[in-house]
Design brief:
Blueprint lengths: L41 E2 L7 H4 L21 H4 L41 H7 L4 H9 L4 H5 L6 H15 L5 H12 L2 H13 L6 H4 L2 H18 L3 H5 L1 H16 L6 H23 L30 H5 L18 H29 L14 E15 L2 E7 L20 E6 L7 E7 L2 H5 L2 E6 L1 H6 L9 E9 H13 L8 H4 L17 E3 L1 H4 L10 H6 L1 E3 L16 H12 L2 E5 L6 H14 L1 H4 L8 E5 L2 H12 L6 E3 L14 H6 L1 H6 L2 H30 L3 E3 L1 H4 L5 H9 L18 H5 L6 H8 L1 H4 L19 H9 L10 H18 E4 L15 H19 L6 H5 L9 H49 L4 E5 H6 L1 H7 L3 E4 L7 H7 L6 E6 L11 H6 L6 H7 L5 E2 L2 E2 L4 H4 L11 E2 L30 H10 L10
Parallel strand pairs: 10-17, 10-18, 11-15, 11-16, 12-15, 16-17, 19-20
Antiparallel strand pairs: 2-3, 2-7, 3-6, 4-5, 4-7, 5-6, 8-9, 13-14
Helix pairs in contact: 3-6, 4-6, 4-7, 4-28, 6-10, 7-38, 8-12, 10-13, 15-18, 18-41, 22-23, 28-35, 28-38, 38-40
Length: 1109
């Protein structure tokens, strides 16, 4: 059916394209969401929907996107709020109140449709008896909290109780997101704005002396609340607390004048809050304080180095642009540290520099190379570069919001992604669109080889970058830089070093002061007896020892004369010494050269400790042994050894264990157990239901908008979806400007065609045909010669194995394949509704189905090339330039595309701001869910007898470990672990540390060669203590090598390495040619060694070549 295009008679009448769009608004016109506000329908902005553009306080979860057309009177984007002039357009910057607070806060989260349970006096009193963690989780997930805090008046005793409970809730160190949720509600409440100021003001006129003398306690609670509010919301809370902060000093002075004792600490805390608010107000006036994610820092005096506790972990602007050497101290390997503070500062700065330097040097080199013509083919030592990168749309993952990012794949067409080192999980990414004047930092959150082959990767941005993403549109083009370091490992440890309190570090006497006089573990007394009978058993043997025999093996552990012989305990002489040292000293170091049985001894130590756990476990709280290894492989091996004598009570945290035996002990499997789910405390179960419900709803809202946003990148949008972004006179010009050769207005089939395609030179008219002729000349396709990837991993699919090894626990964002395909189909279905022409050739109909000739196919291919080239361009027309245009059809083709990109960017910006609210809701809920899972994990770990983790896992789970309080920590491969990693593994409760390793065999691997060699970063705590003559045992009998091979190691590397009698019985190797010895040397003629070695160390690569067998 042919339809004539009429000039719109009324400003509200939209272009309907020849069809009634009541039923054709696309896939989002479901009715199940009635009452949740107006939804976004196929790009159409509904009547009175301007509020979504102008107001933050959209009731009912905000207006949603559905399909794309402007309904009656809905030129909201263009006309603004209450503006009578037809030509004026609403700009993002004209909306000063829109999302000024990028931090996801409780006040922005919507209530779930659940029955509100009122919070009363008795309920609050009962909370005071609970653990702070339970208090904050209960309150943060309670539907009645908002109602409680919204009261305009409150009885004094009830208000005092509320303050008490809030103070207790905020003291939880493990549940910071729940604390943030709770304080977000307090910040926006009548309780803070009306009730508290009234209560404090009434103190001045209180006549009863007994009541007056109770006030100091309540004042202290209120000041504590103010401190918490300002520290979490430094921008948005300052104004909210101003009245309260004004009346507090007056009331305190009045109370003091009437004889009430106000403590010095209360005065000091109030003064701190006042100074902090004054500091923040100054920052705001300077314009340097815009968002609640501002890090509060105490001003430094001139010449004083910034304390490591307030340093940002991510690189700063100055670090990226100025080639200035940072302040670093070398790791002190010859003696004691001046103080614990300097010790922590030293290791924080060294570890941070180890990942920052390659990025800094890479970006500096890149900035100097921007003018080079061959930049896209240039290789950089420290970074990998991805061009024309675009942040397409947000996605929901189990751990929060991630973003789908697309990069130019042409320079990387030879990369074999399944075994490439590129874009591995946890790698640090830096993105910039302005030569690194501003940077967005992210980590790779999910790596799918099929997606990577199409230039798609998922990134998780840090909190500061998330705030900047609000203004990013899919059309923005970034340069993306990747560093080779596994950033996740750095992040958890650096955060741990900043959080740990100096007084909480155990064994400072040895670690910091290097005292060699080692004491016994605090839990041992001279009368403590250990039963060594299980150590005499061979776990592989069926022999059993009679119970009477077991009783006779009990000895006083500190009296080594009573100990059984080495032979009885199935140990050699040096292994016996190691066992004795490990059980009787609070910090023990055991060095095990190759084949000397250090793992065997380690297992004997664990067996002895577990057999006698009644000695070191308290009756109040169970305390597991914490076993930490550097690699997942070593952890699996050690835990499998423990399993031979400990069949239950074990938990393996983090990573995908490759061991079938240990699968039952992983957190993932233990969480699934029905009895565990039912034994969880009720407050956790309730919170879980509420948060997941919140996430599901936010995800549904977000998913629709994000899909819409992504579709705008698939091709040219149909004009009916852009109408609200086009000035009225431009709309009239566009729709009525095309005239056929015979002078008649152009007729076309509206269901299949679009005026905007004609205007952009992509249609079917003579004008379009002429435009198509010049496409190839204007946009020659670039040919990429490309090169084979330089850094392939040796094992196929090794990239997948590394990803599996890096994932600590429940961090995967991968979706089942079926769901991915369903989403893909949904997105392309929506694209058919939204787009006038798609980039992809999927069942696409053009306006001339009759002319599917070879000539037309060639022309269409040229059009698609033209469209692709234009959509990749960044230049858009300015608002000022656009206003001056009257007749759109008089513009040259280049100007038309520039104007189209202005409309597109306005449209994308509108969607982006619409879905921002849901992003924040989902992110806040996901962070609370992560904390909730930690609480669940704590319930599992506190019942365990042995907990196994990698060093990275231990750093990530540091808050849980502080609560689990493991008294005994055993670190295997301790000589391979950077000292900072070791320190963050230890909690305040640790009374016994056993380090097992060999510093002469393997050292920690640093990313930067200079730091490893000149700043002693590659020296572990294990090696450093050995170097300062700390007592240790070296195992000296090797059970593995034939004597000829052992001769290579002793005395050149190990002074005393003797052969165990068992190795003397080895048979000679049988080969087809004559060997005069058991050892043969082969010269591979492998070039320069030194340079290769240095490069290998610097880049953290493994050995280049291995020759064996």
């Amino acid at each position: 059916q042919e339809t004539k295009v009429d000039r719109p008679t009324g400003r509200g009448r939209g272009y309907h394209g020849g069809q009634a769009h009541e039923r054709a608004r696309g896939p989002y016109n479901e009715e199940e969401n009635e009452g949740r506000g107006r939804r976004y329908q196929g790009g159409q902005t509904h009547e009175r929907a301007r509020g979504a553009w102008n107001e933050q306080e959209n009731e009912g979860r905000g207006r949603r996107y559905q399909g794309g057309q402007a309904q009656e009177g809905a030129r909201g984007l263009r006309n603004g709020q209450g503006n009578e002039g037809r030509g004026r357009r609403m700009q993002p910057q004209e909306n000063p109140h829109f999302y000024q607070n990028p931090t996801p806060v409780g006040a922005q989260l919507s209530e779930q449709p659940q029955q509100v349970k009122r919070i009363g006096y008795k309920f609050l009193e009962s909370l005071l008896q609970k653990d702070p963690s339970e208090v904050v989780i209960t309150l943060a997930s309670s539907s009645g909290l908002k109602e409680l805090l919204s009261q305009m008046a409150m009885k004094p005793n009830f208000l005092q109780l509320v303050c008490q409970v809030i103070r207790k809730a905020c003291s939880s160190r493990m549940d910071r997101q729940s604390v943030q949720q709770l304080l977000g509600l307090v910040k926006e409440s009548n309780f803070l704005k009306i009730c508290l100021p009234q209560y404090v003001s009434d103190m001045m006129t209180e006549a009863v002396p007994a009541v007056r003398h109770q006030y100091p306690v309540h004042i202290s609670n209120i000041i504590s609340l103010l401190q918490d509010l300002v520290s979490i919301f430094p921008v948005s809370s300052v104004q909210k607390i101003s009245i309260l902060l004004t009346v507090l000093p007056a009331s305190i002075n009045a109370l003091r004048a009437s004889g009430v004792d106000i403590t010095e600490e209360t005065e000091k805390n109030l003064n701190k809050v006042q100074m902090l608010v004054q500091h923040l107000q100054e920052k705001r006036r300077e314009g340097t304080l815009r968002a609640d994610n501002y890090t509060l820092m105490q001003p430094q005096t001139d010449g004083q180095e910034e304390t490591y506790r307030t340093m940002t972990i991510y690189p700063t602007y100055n670090e990226v642009h100025l080639d200035k050497k940072p302040f670093l101290r070398p790791n002190n390997v010859s003696g004691r540290y001046e103080s614990t503070s300097i010790y922590l500062d030293t290791h924080f700065r060294l570890l941070r520099e180890d990942f920052v330097r390659p990025l800094r040097e890479g970006i500096l080199e890149l900035l100097q190379s921007f003018e080079d013509k061959g930049l896209r083919k240039k290789k950089f030592d420290d970074i990998r570069i991805y061009f024309d990168t675009k942040i397409i749309a947000p996605l929901c993952s189990p751990t929060g919001i991630v973003y789908k990012v697309q990069f130019d794949i042409k320079p990387l067409k030879f990369v074999r992604w399944q075994n490439s080192k590129r874009l591995l999980y946890g790698s640090l990414i830096c993105m910039s669109k302005d030569h690194f004047e501003t940077c967005l930092f992210a980590t790779v959150s999910n790596r799918d080889n099929a997606d990577l082959a199409h230039g798609i990767v998922q990134l998780c941005f840090n909190a500061q970058s998330q705030a900047l993403l609000a203004e990013v549109q899919p059309s923005d083009s970034f340069l993306m830089v990747e560093t080779t370091a596994y950033f996740e490992a750095y992040l958890h440890v650096l955060e741990g070093l900043q959080e740990i309190q100096e007084e909480d570090i155990p064994f400072q006497k040895y670690i910091v002061e290097c005292d060699a006089q080692v004491k016994k573990p605090a839990y041992l007394t001279m009368d403590t007896a250990y039963n060594f009978a299980p150590l005499m058993e061979d776990p592989l043997s069926d022999e059993e020892i009679h119970p009477d025999g077991l009783r006779r093996q009990s000895v006083h552990v500190l009296d080594t004369k009573q100990w059984l012989s080495a032979e009885t305990l199935r140990l050699d002489e040096s292994q016996m010494q190691a066992l004795s040292l490990a059980l009787t000293k609070e910090l023990a170091i055991i060095q095990g050269p190759p084949g000397t049985g250090k793992t065997y001894v380690g297992l004997k130590i664990v067996q002895a400790l577990l057999t006698n756990k009644h000695v070191w476990q308290t009756t109040v709280q169970k305390s597991p042994i914490l076993v930490v290894c550097y690699t997942n492989h070593a952890l699996d091996q050690f835990l499998e050894g423990i399993y031979t004598f400990q069949k239950h009570g074990m938990v393996r945290v983090g990573g995908r264990s490759s061991s079938e035996v240990l699968k039952q002990f992983t957190l993932r499997e233990l969480r699934k157990k029905c009895e565990f789910r039912h034994s969880l405390p009720m407050h956790l179960r309730r919170a879980y239901v509420n948060i997941t419900s919140e996430m599901k709803q936010a995800e549904q809202e977000l998913h629709e908008g994000a899909k819409h946003l992504e579709c705008t990148t698939y091709g040219v949008l149909h004009e009916r979806h852009l109408e609200a972004c086009i000035a009225p006179h431009h709309w009239d010009s566009l729709m009525n400007g095309l005239v056929r050769e015979d002078g008649e207005e152009f007729y076309y089939s509206a269901s299949q065609h679009s005026m905007i395609l004609e205007w952009l030179g992509l249609g079917v008219t003579v004008f379009t045909q002429d435009a198509a002729e010049n496409i190839e000349a204007e946009n020659p396709e670039q040919e990429w010669e490309g090169e084979a990837e330089e850094e392939l991993l040796e094992i196929p699919e090794e990239a997948d194995l590394i990803q599996a090894d890096r994932v600590i626990e429940d961090e995967e964002a991968a979706k089942p394949q079926g769901r991915k395909e369903e989403e893909h189909r949904g997105a392309h279905g929506l694209a058919r509704v939204l787009l006038a022409m798609k980039l992809e050739d999927q069942e696409e109909e053009t306006a001339q189905p009759q002319r599917k000739t070879a000539e037309w196919e060639v022309t269409r291919k040229k059009m698609k090339q033209k469209m692709k080239a234009e959509l990749c361009k960044l230049s858009a027309m300015s608002e000022l330039e656009a206003k001056a245009i009257q007749d759109l059809w008089q513009l040259d083709l280049n100007s038309r595309w520039r104007l189209y990109r202005l409309w597109l960017q306005t449209y994308q910006g509108f969607i982006r701001r619409q879905i921002l609210r849901h992003e924040q809701q989902y992110q806040a809920a996901a962070e609370r869910l992560t904390e909730l899972r930690l609480q669940e994990d704590f319930c599992i770990l506190k019942e365990a007898q042995v907990v196994g983790m990698t060093t990275t896992g231990a750093a990530k789970y540091r808050q849980i470990l502080q609560k689990v309080k493991p008294r005994i920590v055993i670190i295997e491969e301790a000589a391979e672990v950077l000292e900072a990693h070791t320190i963050t593994t230890l909690s305040k409760a640790c009374q016994h540390l056993i380090l097992i390793g060999d510093h002469q065999q393997l050292r920690p691997s640093a990313n930067v060669y200079d730091l490893a060699k000149n700043f002693n970063l590659e020296v572990s705590l294990f090696e450093r203590l050995v170097k300062v003559n700390f007592p240790f045992v070296r195992l000296k009998y090797q059970h593995r090598m034939c004597p000829e091979i052992a001769q290579l190691l002793s005395p050149h590397i190990y002074q005393e390495l003797e052969n165990h009698p068992s190795v003397l019985k080895y048979e000679n190797i049988k080969v087809s040619f004559q060997l005069s010895n058991q050892l043969a040397m082969v010269d591979t003629g492998n070039g320069s060694y030194t340079d290769d070695f240095k490069r290998t160390v610097k880049n953290g690569r493994g050995t280049k070549r291995t020759v064996g067998d």
